[in-house]
């Protein structure tokens, strides 16, 4: 899974067609100790997405319900190909990546913020990359 010290990849399995998974601990694990800079979290798929929000069970369920309701499940041209246009559209609306500030090896997120993988066409196993960009003058985060 390890590409270089500056980029880590991990896999995560999802259990249903639409679901929200907390990936904060996997992202944190990819951050070098004492590093200050940015972490770009990127999902390498066209029917899954990444966002930052509160990881609360009822809210996760509400988001799954909202996501299901906001896009029609049928009637799309891409469905002639593989029947999952709605999944692609949901993923496009959310986006494939988030950039998260890192302070001294810790995710500089707010109290209620978690990094969330949004599965739009599960169940599947998804690959997520975390690319680390140290601030230019940060002596503690040499990637050599
Ligand atoms: Zn498709």
Q: Indicate how many domains the architecture comprises.
A: 1
Spatial ordering of strands, largest sheet: 1-2-9-4-6-7
Average pLDDT number: 93
The value of Rg in angstroms is 16 Å
- Give the biggest beta sheet: 6 strands, antiparallel
The small molecules bound here are: zinc ion
Looking at CATH, the homologous superfamily is YjbQ-like
The strand count comes to 9
Uncertain parts: none
Terminal-residue CA separation: 19 Å
Q: Which shape, going by the Cα principal axes?
A: elongated
Order of helices and strands: EEEHEEHHHEEEE
Number of H- or I-type helical stretches: 4
CATH architecture: Sandwich
**How large is the share of residues in beta strands?**
35-45%
So what's the CATH class? Mainly Beta
Helix content: 10-25%
- From the 3D structure, determine the CATH topology: Jelly Rolls
Which secondary-structure class do the elements indicate?
A: alpha+beta
What does this molecule look like?
24% of the residues lie in helices and 36% in strands. By secondary structure, the chain is an alpha+beta fold. It has one domain: Jelly Rolls, CATH 2.60.120.460. It has a six-stranded antiparallel β-sheet. Strands 3-8-5 form a three-stranded antiparallel β-sheet. The chain contains four helices and nine strands; from the N terminus they run E-E-E-H-E-E-H-H-H-E-E-E-E. It has helices at residues 24-29, 57-70, 79-82, 85-94; strands at 2-4, 7-13, 19-22, 37-43, 48-53, 97-103, 106-107, 114-119, 125-134. The structure holds zinc ion. The site of zinc ion has 5 residues, from helix 3.
